[in-house]
Amino acid sequence: MSMTVPGYSPSFKKPAETLRLRRKRPRNPVDPGTGAAVSPADPAELGPRRAALAAGLRLRPFPATGSRSGGAAAASLRRNPFARLDNTPRPAVGPEPVTDPAWPPASPLRDTFLDFHQENNVTWKKGFSERTTVKQLSMTPHQQHSKYDIPSSESEFPVDWSIKTRLLFTSSQSFTWADHLKAQEEAQGFVQHCRATEVHLPENIQDPRLSTELRCAFQQSLIYWLHPFLPWLQLFPRIGADRKIAGKTSPWSNDEGLQQILMSEWSISFTSLYNLLKTKLCPYFYVCTYQFTVLFRAAGLAGNDIITAILSPTTRGLREAMKNEGIEFSLPLIKENGQRKQKVSETSLHVAESECKTEPEDDEDEEESFSWLEEMGVQHKIKKPDISLKLRKEKNEVQMDHRPESIVLVKGINTFTLLNFLINCKSLVATSGPQAGLPPTLLSPIAFRGATMQMLKARTVNVKTPVYTGYKDQFSLEITGPIMPHSLHSLTMLLKSAQKGSFSAGLYTHEPTSIFNTCTQMEKISNKDVLEKELANCGLHLKTLSQLTQLPILGKSSLRFMEMDNYACNWKS
């Protein structure tokens, strides 16, 4: 049934002939179809509706008015979709959502960092790209809390021996004081670093933009030392960096003479660093190869009273080569009876023997191969070698490769043997691929022979983030580069004074180094105070040094999020 109604278009292909605004009148007419009170309209508009009703067509009612309940019902039917970004209706009456009392009030950027990098197993994944912008982070939906959700009322966070690749500090107060340092402030920061000047800032700086002392200390905290330095190559991280280095100029890859020169200079720098470490003038340093990373720590750090070195990840071939060189080492994550730690050879033998008891041997070929001993009558004088035990031992050692359990701990004088082993180890340098012939990267907080002074990159970003009442300014400071433990602590001390004790931070970790937070202390230190005094000349702030002497408590994980609220620190790993 089709019927032409003047001024009405049921298919909405043509607009009405006349469009008029509905105005509020003291008395509202009644819709002929529904009987509800409607806003007044002109007779020219009501005429086509009555004609359409008579034809049996369904009409859309006028918006109801007059009462509060009717207005609320109409608002729920037709609301402005652009009123809020999340496109959900705002409750009419009621307080704002209440956050968890055990945790400080949530900020728009805090929820972003709660659960990225949750997994601490062998398979390392990234929840966010390292180049994620602040705008994208603020729009990321809330996720579950990490299993290491440890709120704390203390002003310090635990020591983290992993290397960070990016820090993203956010605050409700501006970071403009960190922008555009003057030439004099930059030079003063370099001098303070080279002279190991200890800067003491007030707890609360009223105007950070006018504080020259703060800006110089910020410049000082961004400095680190690197060898080798090739401006066109990114030399950290080295594990999994083939894609970034591929296609770059590498004249040494096919030149053995140039490779020998590079390795000779690298050996001199490596030896220089170790000598500084042995004399407690260098607190720690990293050796980053294309397959594994080594952390050397001076006596007194991480609860050890002697020099320690940690390698991760390792393989059976590397461990066998170290054993052949006479290097004594242990696997800290492999324990016997849950308490006593075993050497690598003893542990593997124990596991193989336990499996051997549960699985009896029935290899007839093996029995026949030694039948000639019985014919000679000397079968009791010669011990038959257990081949299956050896095979099981090798199998268990191979299963640990590239896993957290493969971390190797070297202590005391064996670290010097490890130094010579690494210098002469041919597998330390790649023989093919983009990193072929390129020596490992040395990272240190202090200067050493052949090192190049480098700066962490810092930039500030200001964005507007959505809140319940609209938008608010959110300020952020992004730090990128190889961020070592001392830099992380120095930066947080500065921001505590500059941001009046309130800020949050997302920390992005180079995952192969998270395992360095494993506790390696064998026994309690009796002369801790003496060791700390001997390390006082290592070039670090005394508060930073005090943190590095603490026992690591993070285990296989690392810091992922940190929030400072009224000078009280809360952190997640």
Automatic annotation (TrEMBL):
Transmembrane regions listed in the UniProt entry: none
Region (Disordered): 1-47, 61-110, 344-366
UniProtKB keywords: Developmental protein, Nucleus
One Gene Ontology cellular component annotation held by this UniProt entry: nucleus
Compositional bias per record (Low complexity), positions renumbered to this chain: 61-79
A biological-process GO annotation: nuclear DNA replication
Locations listed in the record: Nucleus
InterPro entries: Donson
UniProt similarity note: Belongs to the DONSON family.
Name of the protein: DNA replication fork stabilization factor DONSON
Record organism: Vombatus ursinus
